[in-house]
Amino acid sequence: MLSMQAGLSKWSVVISTALFVVVLVTLGILTTNVITTMRHSADIRDDERASRAAQSAIRSLKERVSMTLLDNAGSSDAYQVSQTGEFSRWAIEKWRGTSGASSIYDGAIITTRSGATAMASYKGSVFDPSTRFGKVLETQSSAALNHDGKPLVEFVKTWDGVDILASTMIHPDGGKTVMTPYAVLSLFRHVRDSDLGLLAEQYQLEGLRLYEEAPRHMLVVALRGASGVPVAYLGWNRLRPGSRVYQEVRNQVLAGAVILVAFLVVVVIAGGAESRKMARLARVARYEASHDGLSGLLNRNGLLTELNGAIANADDVTLHLLDLDGFKAVNDTWGHQIGDILIQRVAEAIRECHPQIVSAARLGGDEFALVQRTLNSSTDLGARVLSLFERPFEIEGRTVEVGVSIGSARSSDVTDPFELLRRADMALYRAKHEGKGKAVDYQPELDRDREATAVLEGELKQAVADGGISVAYQPLVASGTGKLNGAEALARWHRPTGAISPEIFIPMAERCGLIDQLGMSILRQSVRAAADWPELGLSVNVSPVQICNPSFAPRVASLLDEEDFEPARLTLEITEGVLMSNPTHARRAIDELKKIGVRFSLDDFGCGYASIGALRQFGFDSMKIDRSLVWAADDGRGREVLKATIALAIALSIPVTAEGIENEGQANFLREAGCDQLQGYMVGRPMSAEDLSRFRTGGNGFRPSSSAA
Predict the structure, then answer these.
(1) For labeling, which of 28, 157, 506, 523 is most exposed (least CB within 10 Å)?
(2) Phi, psi at 542, each rounded to 5°
């Protein structure tokens, strides 16, 4: 009986031990498999990231030389000289020295249409390009002559390593069409270790180096020549973040195994808890890497991953970019806490607003994105989103109103998520440009419009530099007597193909940074013309961008002094918008110029948000009623609004000018209401300085009707 009990105890121990070993081995295998899988997955994901980064690094190398090439090849002087026998000497003077001083390229080569080398300079010294590039230069130069001015950029194997060789035909600047190309400019840069070092730091490519053969046990990307054959390889070390993390926690894992052997139950419980904790942390990390913390939506990285997957799977999706209109005013008025709550409310509303939405993202600030799986050619998603913002948001007892503009693009012919994002962004820009609160779909015309706008901006820059912007003058007359009191200077741009409206080229000048130069040119022209009209005042419009420039007031004062023009004759007209957006800058400029006698008029009063307080605070000498109020006076309610506006100015002792006068009835009504000056087509259309001089001396001014008098 005892032996049987002992045997049973023995087998119990054996069985328990066997079960212990089986459980231990099983847990060890499972744990090892989980850790290995996580480590391998992290390593693979980082390798994929590094490969994409390397491709971006290669494009960056090429684009630096390509952009410099376009800047140098686009030269009307070079194009003209390339047709003469002096081209070789001229090219040596222009590019030989720069090849030794430039930090972007090491050498420059000029190849004529016949294939002859007109100039070849390497680090400031003459050299034979055939010894460095062989037939590659000849082939690439010949191809560049028929490439419509687009640069050809290739990697070339040389005796001392690898060069980036970029070639394009020399053409006139300004986007002019080249009928017959005469020469090709080639710039080349040797791929240096320093270049690779910068790229390694910028793109997180550890140990990035150039290799003649593809190295083993490294991540590699080929640098291919014009024929598609690799001329060299970029290789870099795998970061293996998963393996590194594993090395850091290996001792803890071993300690856990020892504890598991000694205290199986405790270790199993602790191991399970730790495993769940690690899984939770991994989920949190993955979530935070691809999601926005405030809204809970995808962030930019998450959106790009989503789009990349959809494009790779050939899914037809539509990307909608949303930009809130008026969000900055919410932050300024109610504070960022209310702004954050508004972002959360908007996120909740848009992600569930349509059944075809597969994901939503916040790209930063007040910009959102929606990815829609397109099931048919028509959709009401844009209208659905716009309708969400028709009603205000109620936040902590506050009524918060914002609008939204939408730009959309489909992936049907797109292979790159960045291109899809660019197209949607262009559509969004058009939606905001058209007045906000709109939904615009991408069309190829948007690209053509952008190119046309770039051409027009170039022409505007040249016109401003050459004095091609002229000035027209519209008379200002006293309402009571019809006497000519002054004139308003108006910018005019006449191109060979027709005139461009100021409503187009003035905002364009503001965007291009030309408005200061243009504004001072208009002021100087008008001041010089007004010198012949000593009894007349001169009104000149000022852009909000100008008046916010700290140097504006000193430059105006200096110009008036140079032209010996009486400051009291000059009235600068500014719009209401600058008073709302940049009151401090506007007040500083107004105060400085009023000290020397310059007058200021509030332009377009009645179409914005300027208040009585603004009129008093900024000390305007006069105000101009917007033409929309004048034209609205045809009905009884409009007349009362116009009367009240003029009465307000009279109460503040501020002279009033009304613009947009087109008939005698309007003029008589405004005079009876107390308006001081009139301006409009009935008084006189915009005219040249010579015509205004004849208008001034010929008695062609407006005459009030006798009945009105």
Answers:
(1) 28
(2) -125, 130
Please choose, from the candidates 554, 622, 623, the residue with its C-alpha nearest in 3D space to the C-alpha of residue 588. 554
Mean pLDDT of 676-694: 91
Could you write out the DSSP letters of every residue in 418-452? HHHHHHHHHHHHHHHHTTSS-EEE--HHHHHHHHH
Q: Which residue, 325, 335, 374, is CA-closest to 354?
A: 374
Distance between CA atoms of residues 91 and 170, nearest Å: 11
In three-state secondary structure terms, 675 is coil
What pLDDT, on the 0 to 100 scale, is given for residue 541? 92
Which of 355, 360, 348 minimizes the C-alpha distance to 303?
360
DSSP state of 376: S
Length of the chain, in residues: 709
**CA 521/CA 504 separation, integer angstroms:** 18
Note the pLDDT tens digit of each residue in 11-44. 665 676 677 677 767 877 887 787 778 878 887 8
How many Å is the maximal CA-CA distance in the chain? 142
CA distance 407 to 310: 19
Of 433, 437, 436, 429, the C-alpha closest to 383 is 437
Q: Is the pLDDT score of 491 beyond 80? A: yes
- Closest by CA to 261, choosing from 511, 17, 543, is 17
Phi, psi angles (nearest 5°) of residue 490: -125, 130
Q: SS3 for 174? A: coil
**Cα separation of 15 and 4, whole Å?**
16
The structure tokens listed for 692 are 């205004």
Among the ranges given (359-363, 452-456, 467-471, 510-514), the one the predictor scored with the smallest mean pLDDT: 452-456
pLDDT at 707: 40
pLDDT greater than 70 at residue 584? yes
Distance of alpha carbon 218 from alpha carbon 208, whole angstroms: 10
The answer to whether 153 and 131 are in contact (CB under 8 A) is no
Q: In whole angstroms, what separates CA 110 from the centre of its chain?
A: 35
Classify residue 701 as left (phi > 0), alpha (psi -120 to 50) or beta: beta
Distance CA 79, CA 116 (A): 17
- By C-alpha distance, which of 89, 108, 91, 90 is closest to 100? 108
Three-state DSSP string of 567-620: HHHEEEEEEHHHHHHCHHHHHHHHHHHHCCCCEEEEEEECCCCCCHHHHHHHCC
Residue 65 banded pLDDT, cuts 50, 70, 90:
confident
pLDDT in tens, 287-325: 888 888 888 899 999 988 888 888 888 788 889 999 998
Cα–Cα distance for residue pair 260/124, rounded to 1 Å: 72
**Is 353 strand, coil or helix?**
coil
pLDDT digits (tens, 9 = 90+) for 387-425: 888 888 888 888 888 889 999 888 887 888 898 899 999
Backbone angles phi, psi at 532, to 5 degrees: -85, 0
CA torsion sign for 252, 258, 260, 264 is negative
